[in-house]
Design a protein that fits this description.
The protein has about 120 residues and is of the alpha+beta class. Helix content is about 25%, strand content about 45%. The longest helix is centred in the middle third of the chain and has 16 residues.
Length: about 120
């Protein structure tokens, strides 16, 4: 009897301490720039790592932006944080991460975060 009560308590506690979130990372090159940069020699230095994010809430599957608009807003936020106009800089290693959390289908939040490294050319 004690084992049965203990197992029920354990399963109940696991249910309450479980996260309702799902993560996904896209490491593909979704960046379609026409400029090609060859990094064969040591003529650059890594300046910083920047991120940009955007999120939207859904209630009963109804919500704001779709996934493409959310990605575009996160990418624009990242580029604004990069300060690329000052010197000869470029974005490399662009990674897109997606997190869906909440209690679907009643309420959930989709967050897309885009991150990259900023390099600066020294020669």
């Amino acid at each position: 009897m004690k084992k049965k009560i203990f197992s029920i308590m354990l399963l109940t506690s696991l249910l309450f301490f479980n996260s309702c979130g799902v993560n996904n990372a896209l490491v593909a090159n979704l960046n379609q720039n026409s400029t090609q940069v060859h990094l064969t020699t040591n003529n650059y230095k890594t300046v910083e790592r920047i991120t940009g994010s955007a999120e939207v809430d859904y209630v009963l599957f109804f919500g704001g932006k779709n996934r493409k608009q959310l990605y575009e807003n996160a990418y624009a936020d990242m580029v604004n944080n990069a300060n690329l106009m000052a010197d000869s800089k470029a974005l490399i290693n662009i990674v897109t991460e997606e997190h869906i959390g909440g209690v679907p289908p009643f309420y959930y939040t989709r967050t897309i975060t885009v991150s990259a490294h900023v390099i600066e050319f020294v020669r």
